[in-house]
TrEMBL record:
SUPFAM superfamilies: Bacterial exopeptidase dimerisation domain (SSF55031), Zn-dependent exopeptidases (SSF53187). It comes from Pediococcus pentosaceus. This is Dipeptidase PepV. CDD domains: M20_PepV (cd03888). It holds the Pfam family Peptidase_M20. The gene is pepV. Keywords: Dipeptidase, Hydrolase, Metal-binding, Metalloprotease, Protease, Zinc. InterPro entries: ArgE/DapE_CS (IPR001261), Bact_exopeptidase_dim_dom (IPR036264), M20A_pepV-rel (IPR010964), Peptidase_M20 (IPR002933), Peptidase_M20A (IPR050072). Gene3D superfamilies: 3.30.70.360, Zn peptidases (3.40.630.10). Its cofactor is Zn(2+). One of its GO terms (molecular function) is metallopeptidase activity. Belongs to the peptidase M20A family.
């Protein structure tokens, strides 16, 4: 039986894109401030999940909603469960957008919106693939479940709840990364670094320092307020402007009585690619460290700035299969006399672990008397052999439709693929495309969504028949 997968996708793409636009209008970032019993992760994640399941119900699928935090779309019968794991949540929009992030814009063959590439576009492509298999009545020997979480960008509350009440799939993939395949994922953990309160002397005193909106996003901007006593304000402003210009940054310096406000704009990016961003907080701390006597600023400037491999923190590690450990300082909160911490996000290979990272960072920061502890939930490294039939089948389908050689890959990102012993990430970003996940002006090529759906449809059938 020969199936023209491309023709099947093309005949359904208009409805798919219309539905995708509806999904993208929903701000589904985690919002515990407005959480209720019926919306434990906030109204946005719930609405996105319900909208996605409603599409499937209209198309005749069996669906299940788990406590408004996760759900699945099901097709086929069999003892084995083949899972396709996506997510309906997204990171906060943040600043720097040229358009409204929740009013999707189609321009030059792209769709611009928060969540389009991570992960609503790829998830919709996977849904269309499953829809084609159902409508063609293709024979499958496995139960296929397209499973959606609503907290992938934070603590995986939704997916964890799902796995408490539903059987874990035997194998599968997550459409939440890139092609040709991701069969290895580094461990992921965030750590809170807290210093004793010891600042407060000199002509310049740090009153507050804040930056960052999420612990897996390099902060775009940072703000510091400094109390000044008998300083040359104009000279300080000139030095700040010079620093910004020399480092390709922008910012603003304002004065309100004896308070000096420093605002610096860098470039946000996903924590898995530290070199793609310009960390506003570490740049601002580096400038202020030469002016203000503050252990907090000194630690950031001397132990964290421009060191994505963790050498200054003493946590650098590498192995042949997974490569280098990477680290990004993402959340900063200092208020004189009250709070004093930095949260770093670490992506680590199999050659180290969270306990060792705490031990080494604590030692490296001993002069600061820093307390280092795990923050949130940690994920250990994950790897599926390139010889596994799952990996071989997915790569074979990818090669057939792209004409490109498919090779196994390890990334610093974390996907739902790691939930399964035989789980990988498969698309939907194609090689050579700009990675704009978690960034302002996030977009995805429409052709890439269509081509991913073609590959997914063929791959799902090959694995489930």
């Amino acid at each position: 039986m020969t199936i023209d997968w491309n023709a099947e996708v093309q005949s359904r793409k208009d409805v798919m894109l219309e539905r995708l636009m509806e999904l993208l209008k929903i701000d589904s970032s985690r919002d515990t401030e407005h959480a209720t019993k019926d919306a434990p992760l906030g109204p946005g994640p719930r609405k996105a999940l319900e909208t996605m399941l409603a599409f499937a119900e209209k198309d005749g699928f069996v669906t299940k909603n788990i406590d408004n935090v996760a759900g699945h779309i099901e097709y086929g019968d069999g003892e084995e469960i083949f899972g396709i794991l996506g997510h309906m949540d997204e990171v906060p929009a943040g600043e720097g957008w040229e358009t409204n992030p929740f009013e999707p814009v189609e321009k030059n063959g792209r769709i611009y919106a928060r969540g389009i590439s991570d992960d609503k576009g790829p998830s919709m492509a996977a849904y269309l693939a499953l829809q084609i298999i159902k409508e063609l009545k293709l024979p499958v020997s496995k139960k296929i479940r397209l499973i959606f979480g609503t907290d992938e960008e934070s603590e995986w509350v939704g997916m964890n709840r799902y796995l408490e009440v539903e059987k874990t799939p035997d194998f599968g993939f997550s459409p939440d990364a890139e092609f040709p395949i991701i069969n290895g994922e580094k461990g992921i953990a965030s750590f809170k670094i807290e210093l004793p309160q010891s600042d407060g002397q000199g002509d310049l005193v740090l009153k507050s320092f804040t930056s960052g909106i999420k612990e897996n996003m390099i902060p775009r901007d940072a703000t510091a307020i400094v109390i000044a006593d008998d300083v040359d304000v104009e000279e300080l402003k000139t030095e700040f402007d010079t620093f910004l210009a020399e480092n390709g940054l922008t910012g603003e310096f304002t004065v309100d009585g004896n308070e000096l406000k420093f605002f610096l704009i860098g470039k946000s990016s996903h924590a898995l690619e530290p070199k793609a961003g310009l960390n506003a907080a570490t740049f601002l701390a580096t400038f202020l460290n030469t002016k203000v006597a503050s252990n907090y600023l000194k630690m950031i400037a001397e132990q964290m700035h421009l060191d994505s491999r963790g050498h200054k923190l003493g946590i650098n590690s590498i192995d042949a299969k997974m490569g280098d450990l990477t680290v990004t300082p993402d959340l900063f909160n200092y208020e004189f006399g009250k709070t004093n911490h930095v949260i770093i996000n670490v992506r680590y290979p199999q050659s180290t672990n969270a306990d060792e990272i705490i031990e080494k960072a604590t030692e490296a920061l001993s002069d600061f008397e820093a307390k280092v502890e795990i923050h949130g939930h940690a994920q250990v490294p994950h790897y599926v052999s390139g010889e596994d039939p799952l990996v071989k089948t997915l790569l074979s389908v990818y090669e057939e439709h792209t004409g490109e050689k498919g090779e196994e890959t390890v990334i610093g990102g974390g996907t739902y693929g790691r939930i399964l012993d035989r789980g990988v990430a498969f698309g939907a970003q194609f090689p050579g495309r700009e990675n704009v996940m978690h960034q302002a002006n996030e977009y995805m090529e429409i052709d890439d969504i269509i081509n991913a759906a073609v590959i997914y449809a063929h791959a799902i059938y090959e694995l489930a028949k």
